Amino acid sequence: MKPQSKQHFSHDHILLLLQPDEGELINCQACENPISEPFHGCLPCNFHLHDGCLAAPRSLDHPSHPSHPLTLHPTPTYPSRSFTCNACGSQGKAYSFSCARCEFDLHVQCACMPKTTLVGNHPHQLKMIFGSPYKDKTTIFACDVCDGTMDPDQWLYYCGACDFGAHLGCAASNGRPGNDSRSKAAREEEEEENGGANVGWKDSRVEAEKAMFEAERELQEQRIAHQLMLQALDNAGDYVGSSYTRKYYYY
Ligand SMILES: [Zn+2]
Ligand SMILES: [Zn+2]
Ligand SMILES: [Zn+2]
Ligand SMILES: [Zn+2]
Ligand SMILES: [Zn+2]
Ligand SMILES: [Zn+2]
């Protein structure tokens, strides 16, 4: 297999396609979760990214925050160097999709979760909703997977017909076998219905690839611009230097 290398705006070096060694514990720089599948990384820097996280776009229009686009930040923008995810309510210290104006922050993995999913113990497709399904926001309700209480401000997967709800994490870890291909088919169907609207949010690979390509091109352009600037500075330096001494001499 030919080694595939990629670039990411958050790291200066080329990232190589790598395979985790057996028993090796590697965490993703972007989402802080362990990596068990082939990934891209920079060994000298101990920098590793899930391929999914690597493909996350630089900017995202997310239906949970329709007023502003979210920007991907490699480090939290707060003095505490951490953020609280508006989707799952837990802290993050790594990459985030953020709206600085509203102090709205999402884990990369929460921002990229599918809009619909299936869980093992429920026959219907669950829809992602961005807060309590009940009108009365003081209603306390529990996750139908783990029985733990749910924060009325946090996101959940929900089936309205059955009033069945699950934490994002509970739904993800109880995914039905074949969940992926089925939910992807469902998502594609939905995409057609929506005429491709809010396609940026869907974890569609094409979009991610496009964004990646854009990011790579941007980086390359920046590098070229930087090089040109250095060259220009060099030339200017020579020129200023010599003319200065020359002038000095003539005085
Ligand atoms: Zn990751
Ligand atoms: Zn590096
Ligand atoms: Zn989160
Ligand atoms: Zn905002
Ligand atoms: Zn739960
Ligand atoms: Zn149901």
UniProtKB/TrEMBL annotation:
Q: What's the protein name?
A: DC1 domain-containing protein
Q: State the organism of origin.
A: Rehmannia glutinosa (Chinese foxglove)
Provide the DC1 domain boundaries.
9-53, 63-111, 122-171
- The answer to whether keyword GTP-binding applies is no
What keywords would UniProt list here?
A: Repeat
Q: What is the lineage of its organism?
A: Eukaryota, Viridiplantae, Streptophyta, Embryophyta, Tracheophyta
Q: Where is this region: Disordered?
A: 174-201
Taxonomically, the superkingdom here is Eukaryota
